[in-house]
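Shipment paperwork, digital attachment
Item: protein structure file
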Amino acid sequence: MTGGARHRLVAAAGLLAATGIFAASSPAAAHGFGQRYDLPIPLAHYIWGAGATVALSFVLLALFLRAGRAVDTGPTVTLSLGGAERGLGIAAIAIRFAAVVLLLIAIVAGLFGDQNPFRNIAPTLVWIIGWVGIAFLSFILGDVWRLLNPWAALYDAAAWIFRPSSKTEPRGVARYPPWLGAWPAVILFVVFAWMELAWSGRSVPANLAAALALYSVLTLAGLAVFGRAWLDRGEIFCKVFGLFARFAPVAWPSGSSKAVVLRLPGAGLVDERPLDWAQVALTIAVLATVTFDGLLETPLWASLDAAILDAPDDSVLWTGLGLREDQALRLARTVALPAIVLLFIAAYVAVCGSMAALARDKVSTAIIARRFVLTLVPIAIAYHVAHYFSYLFVGGQYIIPLFSDPFGWGWNLFGTAAYRPDIGIVGPRTQWYVAVVSVVVGHVIAVCLSHVVGLRLFDDRRTALVTQIPMIVLMIAYTMCSLWILSQPIVESPAG
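Attachment content:
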């Protein structure tokens, strides 16, 4: 393709974006707005104000939070299930059955239904309801995925059918290798993020259904071989949604417990036991990938795309690799995604190394990294809310007509097929203020948790305070950077 043709393609892409994201892409890929919000004050004021708020929260904690008070993560309320246990058990069975049915519907609809993503339930059910929606439920209501997981439900059903008299938990045919840890979940999560952000088939129902079927086979095979250990080590959504659920103010019964615990948001993230390195990597990868998703909507990334499209005709992209332009753009995302994850991990470990140096090596870098990493979860959740809020409440409306016509065959099972989503339900002004509030609140909670962990980890209060300075600087920098990224597709800032 000639350079002039590439310039015309860039211009056409800009015109397409200007006419509105919802007219140009599927509900599974739309994260932005066609119109923008005019800020009443310069964007820089919001960014510096957010950074100052996070810094001030650290100063206040340093002044008023003492080691004795830091041991306790706040009040808790324990609610016994009592006589409701049987009824809740029946409801759980019904919910798990519905989850399996929805999994099958997504696969069948994707393979055999209309391939227009607006008329097929698979993209909306997977990306908006399954990924974004359940993530929101997890950090609000707790570990709901433990109940909704369709693959665990199928495994438990198979165990009940083939071992109806057994009262012990079913086991796989092999013992899960301890050295492998949760690294399968880390690798699979990065692949999942690549599918969301770079894969050309993410909104093609048949391709998405095939990927869902493949993941189902992989997960069920892991369960068959290793038993429920695979859920704790290799099942992506158990790990990620479970991570979000630790932030939630609700802890549901597990093991022999038969009570619900109400606690302060974030209290479940304070853990005396250091995480293993795979879980550290997964936690940072969750933060890095959603940040990368936001970065893709900025002028900075648009300039990179333009540079690729304007590459000369003798460029290795066209002559050596033989790529089409769309393939070259996806290659850039494919390379950048793991690079961003590794960059975030390296930055975090470097900060932990600085903390260890300030502690005069009383505690190793490894221990600091494994103890403090959960304090980053509120930041990941905040960015998740800020980035996906409109996506959930605007794009999520597509599920209403699709429930009545999941295959795009003209059905109207529940009388909702004629529903038309209101894409103006969340305007850019609302989205901007949700972003500002969530980012600031998330970082302030992260600072609080970091302070608590520091006071628990180090022998004296002075060391705990001094060693937190690099982490606080990182959080302030990320607050300001993330607000800039989030602002790019939403706001117009006045000069000044």
